[in-house]
Amino acid sequence: MTTNIVLTKDEVEALTGRHRKDAQIKALRFMGIEHRVRPDGTVAVLKAHIELVFGVSAGNPRKARRTEPNWAALDG
To answer: What Pfam families does its record include (predicted)?
Structure first.
């Protein structure tokens, strides 16, 4: 069983909301997502990069961190 390391055509379309390759590239650049254009003109996006950008790794969603001010810093 082989696992594809890049998004499928449908996944790239879903991610960008675009069907045309030039529009997909523009959307990916706008979102700061690394991609490459293959010799046939299709767009390749690594699944690992998407997981990194969106904060998901190996099926474990990123848990929101709760931050609090440093109250001790307010004391003289």
So the answer is: DUF4224
The dihedral formed by the CA atoms of 28, 29, 34 and 35, expressed in degrees to the nearest 10: 60
Look at residue 58 in the predicted model and tell me its pLDDT: 55
The set of residues, in sequence order, having a beta carbon less than 8 Å from that of 48 and lying 6+ positions away, is 5
**Residue where the block lists tokens 């069983």:** 1
Indicate the pTM of the whole model.
0.68
Q: Are 48 and 5 in contact (CB under 8 A)?
A: yes
Tens-place pLDDT, residues 17-69: 999 999 999 999 999 999 999 999 999 999 999 988 888 765 555 565 677 88
